[in-house]
Amino acid sequence: MIRSYRKADLEDMVRIWYEASVIAHSFIPASFWALQKGAMKEKYLPLAENFVFQEDRQVAGFISLVGERVCALFVAPELQRRGIGKALLEYAKILKRKLSLKVYKENKSAFCFYEMCGFVVAGEEIDEYTDHMQILMEWDKLE
C-alpha cells in the first residue's frame, strides 16, 4: 500500500536511502552518503512531499517529490526488483502532470529503469557535491 509518510517513518526512510545509495552508487565512497544522513533526516526529507510503500507494516520504499521533481526514489535493497519502485513512480505520475529527475550516469540500472518508465533524457550536468555526471530526465503525461 502507498500512503503519505509519517514522522515515525523517517528513520526507516533514511536507512533505506543510505543502504540503497551505497549499493547503487558504488562509484561514490560510502563515507559521502554517511555524511549526508543528518541532512536527509532533518532537512531534505521533511521539506519534500513523501509517499511510502508499506508492506507488512514495514516501509519497503519511498518517493520524495518537490513540486514536479522526483528528489528521491529508493527501495530497500532486499526488496528491489519486485515492482515497488515502479508502483511509487506510477503513483507520482497520477499526482503530477510532469516529472523530472536526475540520475547518475554510472547508475545504468536506474537510468534503464527510468527509460522503461517513460522518462527521456533532457540534459546532463556535473553534480557539484560528487563531481559525477548526472543525466536530467523528464516525463510528461501529455507526450
Give a short synopsis of this structure.
By secondary structure, the protein is α+β, with helices and mostly antiparallel strands. It is built from 4 helices and 7 strands; from the N terminus they run βααβββαβαββ.
Strand-helix topology:
Elements: E1 2-4, H1 10-24, H2 30-47, E2 49-55, E3 58-66, E4 69-75, H3 84-95, E5 98-104, H4 108-116, E6 120-126, E7 133-140
Antiparallel strand pairs: 1-2, 2-3, 3-4, 5-7, 6-7
Helix pairs in contact: 1-2
Molecular structure report:
- The protein is α+β, with helices and mostly antiparallel strands.
- A hairpin with a 2-residue loop joins strand 3 and strand 4 (69-75).
- It is globular and about 35 Å long.
- The chain has a four-stranded antiparallel β-sheet with strand order 1-2-3-4, with helices on both faces. Strands 5-7-6 form a three-stranded antiparallel β-sheet, with helices on one face.
- It has a single domain (2-140), classed as Gcn5-related N-acetyltransferase (GNAT) (Aminopeptidase, 3-Layer(aba) Sandwich).
- The longest helix has 18 residues, at 30-47.
- It contains four helices and seven strands.
- 25% of the residues are buried.
- The model has no long low-confidence stretch (mean pLDDT 93).
Shape: globular
Order of helices and strands: EHHEEEHEHEE
Q: Into which percentage range does the β-strand content fall? A: 25-35%
User: How many E-type strands?
Assistant: 7
Structural class: alpha+beta
Helix segment count? 4
Tell me the quaternary state: single chain
Number of domains: 1
